[in-house]
């Protein structure tokens, strides 16, 4: 899972705890969550990560990087990427937690059947 977000994004603040939960619940099945903050620096991000108790890798990105992944004019932008590096889904804006978790389970189940090359 690749999530583009920002500390200034209220919807992102709702989803980030879900992603920490998904990381805990599905890391043994192969899920890796990576957050890409679109903030200008680590200064607002570091305390935000501590406050939200984020348990997955976060990097600083920019709008150009987000556009390369199809994330334009909306945050959050969250991609599900399979084990072979193929984008399985892209969500712009808020997604229903249960629907999103269902997509994760289907992707993990389907990709577990296929060999990684």
List low-confidence stretches.
none
Q: What Rg do the Cα atoms give?
A: 14 Å
Q: CATH homologous superfamily name?
A: Glutaredoxin
- CATH architectural arrangement: 3-Layer(aba) Sandwich
The helix/strand order is: EHEHEHEEH
Protein architecture, described:
Helix content is 44%, strand content 20%. It has a single domain (2-112), classed as 3-Layer(aba) Sandwich (Glutaredoxin). The model has no long low-confidence stretch (mean pLDDT 92). Strands 3-2-1-4-5 form a five-stranded mixed β-sheet, with no helix packed on it. It has helices at 10-26, 42-52, 63-68, 97-113, and strands spanning 2-5, 34-37, 57-60, 77-81, 87-92. It is α/β, with parallel strands linked by helices and 117 residues long. It is built from four helices and five strands, in the order E-H-E-H-E-H-E-E-H. The two termini are 19 Å apart.
Keywords:
5 strands, alpha/beta, 117 residues, 5-stranded mixed sheet, globular, 4 helices, Glutaredoxin
Record the SSE blueprint.
Layout: E1 2-5, H1 10-26, E2 34-37, H2 42-52, E3 57-60, H3 63-68, E4 77-81, E5 87-92, H4 97-113
Parallel strand pairs: 1-2, 2-3
Antiparallel strand pairs: 1-4, 4-5
Short synopsis of the structure:
The protein is built from four helices and five strands; from the N terminus they run βαβαβαββα. The chain has 117 residues and is of the alpha/beta class.
